[in-house]
Structures are given as structure tokens and as C-alpha cells.
Amino acid sequence: MHYYCEFTWFPGTTAEEVRKRIVQQHDAGMNHPERIRGWYNLAGGGAGFLLVEYDDPRELSEFLMPYMDLMAWDVRAVYQNDYDKSIQAFRAGLQEAQ
Questions:
Q1: Nearest to 16 by CA among 36, 44, 45, 37
Q2: What pLDDT score was predicted for residue 97?
Q3: Which segments of 19-89 are extended strands (E)?
């Protein structure tokens, strides 16, 4: 399952604190880069999102918890749409409704 994990730093959180925590978690083998499908920061800093893949949401929580004193998380399960297949399904649904 893929998860969209939006983060926003808490007021007063510094870039140094975030850098230090990320490196600590990396060095401890806890960031699991093999599960991170995308990591994006918003222009201006202090916010962004990760797209990660976990089979068990409890493992996702374990990954995010060490950062929860520095930033808030909004997490949502997501799935990918194939554009062409979606258009076909929408057309079929419209025809059935007529």
C-alpha cells in the first residue's frame, strides 16, 4: 500500500533539528529508504510530503513516530490511477446511467 505523508514543521522547529533527526534515524537504519518512493519539500521550506510504501500501517507509524515532536503529519492511503483505463471506466459508467 502506498501512503501520502504530508508534513509541516511545528513553529520553532529549526532546520538543524530536522537535519540532525534525519541523519540520526538514517544512521540507525530506521528511515528505510527502500520504502520511500518520493520525497518532496515545498518551496520556502518547513513543509512537504513523502510517498512511501508499507504493507502494514503499524510499520508506517513506527517510521513516522521519531519525527512527531518536530512536525505534524497528515497521512492518507493512496492508489495510482491509469488515465486511459479510468477514462474508459468513466465512459462505461456514463453509458450505464443512460
A1: 45
A2: 82
A3: 36-41, 47-53, 71-78
CATH number for the domain formed by residue range(s) 2-97: 3.30.70.1060
Q: Count CB-CB contacts under 10 A for residue 52.
A: 21
Helix (H, G, I), strand (E, B) or coil at 68: coil
Model confidence at 98, pLDDT cuts 50, 70, 90, reads confident
In contact, 39 and 47? CB cutoff 8 Å: no
Give the model confidence (pLDDT) of 36-47 as tens digits.
Answer: 999 999 999 999
What is the amino acid identity at position 98? Q
User: What single-letter DSSP state applies at residue 10?
Assistant: P
Q: Write out the H or E segment, with its range, that includes residue 20.
A: helix 15-27
The single residue listed with the C-alpha cell 520556502 is 44
- The domain limits of the chain are 2-97
Cα(98)–Cα(90) distance, integer angstroms: 13
